[in-house]
Write a sequence for this structure.
């Protein structure tokens, strides 16, 4: 995993940062709504909890990713941007 991915965002070829999907495993209730809405980026493990791969959200899936985040009933799914981590690190 690259440092940029670990920081929650990664540069696209054009230099703009793209967000990364994250799941808070404590908050998640494992009902899998996110995987139904965004199967391209979210799969479920054997127990029905979501698995995201940590790669930047492709531009063509950004709208669907925001929709999945908005639909998460426990606010466990989120899109992280670089500036969120800059505050955490300072
Ligand atoms: S929608 Fe939210 S609570 Fe439901 S499985 Fe996905 S991350 Fe967990």
């Amino acid at each position: 995993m690259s440092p940029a991915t670990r920081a929650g965002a990664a540069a696209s070829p054009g230099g703009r940062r793209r967000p990364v999907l994250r799941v808070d495993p404590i908050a998640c209730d494992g009902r899998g709504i996110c995987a139904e809405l965004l199967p391209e980026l979210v799969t479920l493990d054997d127990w029905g909890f979501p698995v995201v791969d940590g790669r930047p959200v492709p531009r063509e899936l950004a709208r669907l990713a925001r929709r999945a985040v908005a639909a998460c009933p426990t606010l466990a799914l989120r899109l992280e941007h670089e500036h969120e981590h800059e505050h955490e690190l300072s």
Residues 23, 28-34, 50, 72-74, 76-77 surround iron/sulfur cluster (CB under 6 Å). Confidence is low (pLDDT under 50) at residues 1-8. The two ends are 22 Å apart (CA to CA). The chain has one domain: 3-89.
